[in-house]
Design brief:
Elements lengths: L11 E6 L5 E2 L5 E2 L2 E8 L9 E5 L37 E5 L31 H14 L5 E7 L1 H12 L4 E7 L7 H16 L16 H15 L2 H7 L18 H16 L2 H13 L10 H5 L3 E7 L7 H13 L4 E6 L13 H12 L3
Parallel strand pairs: 5-6, 5-7, 7-8, 8-9, 9-10
Antiparallel strand pairs: 1-4, 2-3, 4-6
Helix pairs in contact: 1-2, 3-4, 3-7, 4-6
Length: about 375
């Protein structure tokens, strides 16, 4: 643990909605209670103007930086957050929650109904991106922050930032949207459909009641993760890392694991099952499918009245949310006459680049956060 680490951190939990004040969802349904797991790093300054809100991607959580006791690895965005890093915790107060519908401490479909009943299962209401952001705003208010220095996130995290900035731009000075999309293509929806089918077809899914029945759709969830992981990496990254190398000293033709890349995907699937809930995977991928905040004629009206300073980043080898996704957002912001900076960053690692130590990418974020408005 070096001087550029936030050190040992703890995840906290707060109840933001209850029966007296339920969360009213975009669908019209009400949800209560709603507990949110979150971490903070750094110190909020006297005028409460240095807060940065981090929105995580599909399988992320509140543990973005530093170490939990006993961890073998730091938080998922430790390359980005810490003393002297782009999100410098010597300067900024950083807020990172687990999102609504998640499975790492925030209320989701695996949570007990009403706080003490059986798990919701498929009775959990369908969520929209606005619902996730509404909970983020509630956490921000709970922490005493009225306006953010910046909101930022990659992939699904970037989508949350986009929704938030378009809807209530007065709550932030800067918005950083990385490797994200404003509207999934048919191909992206198809990938998620196959992943959900794998989960729901697993006998262990039990109609979504697996928690009550002491089961789990391990095979389906692992398969979903394996499929998704292929889309997160570029072909060059997979070729460089594995090529056609056999897993063992001698090839053993058949239908077992014979190539190194097969073993790697097996590991990804098996480790994912240990930390993620299948229902959260279903619900959160569906949130992404329905997301289309620029689809209406008045989509940019709010930012026209309250401009936000935008940074859009894509990666040249990202074929899951390629550069055309970012350029669609860029065109909409330019039409709305927003102050926007756009960068396509070279990286061999594909979609996962936003999680990795890609110098030009990190330097771009650091420069944008340090630039006076």
């Amino acid at each position: 643990m070096g001087a550029d680490s936030v050190g040992v951190v703890n995840t906290q939990t707060v109840r933001l909605f209850d029966s007296a004040n339920p969360l009213r969802l975009e669908s019209g349904a009400e949800l209560s209670p709603v507990d949110v797991a979150y971490e903070t790093y750094g110190t909020l300054n006297a005028d409460r103007s240095n807060a940065i809100f981090i929105c995580h991607a599909l399988t992320g959580d509140a543990h973005a930086a530093g170490w939990h006791l006993g961890d073998k690895h730091p938080g998922w965005w430790d390359t980005m957050i810490g003393p002297g890093k782009p999100v410098d915790t010597n300067r900024f107060y950083v807020i990172v929650p687990n999102l609504l519908g998640g499975c790492q401490g925030t209320t989701g479909p695996a949570s007990p109904r009403g706080g003490d009943g059986p798990a919701y299962g498929l009775d959990f209401p369908i969520l929209m991106m606005d619902d996730l952001v509404r909970v983020h705003r509630a956490l921000m208010a709970y922490l005493g922050v009225e306006r953010l220095y910046a909101a930022m996130g990659g992939s699904l995290g970037g989508m949350q930032v986009l929704q938030w900035a378009l809807e209530t731009p007065e709550q932030m000075e800067r918005a950083i949207v990385i490797a994200a999309s404003s509207r999934l293509t048919a191909q992206n929806i198809a990938f998620s459909a196959v992943a959900r089918k794998a989960i729901m077809s697993d006998p262990g899914f039990r109609g979504g009641r697996y928690a009550q029945e002491g089961d789990n759709p391990d095979t389906g969830l692992a398969t979903a993760r394996m499929l998704a992981h292929i889309t997160y990496l570029s072909e060059d990254a997979l070729s460089e890392k594995f090529g056609r190398e056999p897993q063992f000293s001698e090839s053993n033709p058949g239908f077992g694991v014979d190539f190194a890349v097969e073993s790697y995907l097996d590991y990804q699937g098996e480790s994912f099952v240990e930390r993620f809930d299948a229902l959260s995977y279903l619900y959160l991928t569906r949130v992404m499918d329905y997301f289309d905040p620029l689809g209406s004629d008045n989509a940019t009206d709010a930012i026209g009245a309250n401009p936000v300073n935008w940074l859009l980043i894509s990666f040249d080898t990202d074929w899951r949310f390629g550069d055309e996704h970012t350029r669609r957002i860029l065109r909409a912001l330019e039409r709305a006459e927003q102050p926007v900076t756009y960068r396509m960053v070279p990286s061999k690692w594909g979609h996962d680049s936003f999680l990795l130590e890609v110098p030009r990418y990190l330097e771009t974020v650091e420069a944008f956060l340090g630039r006076p408005l």
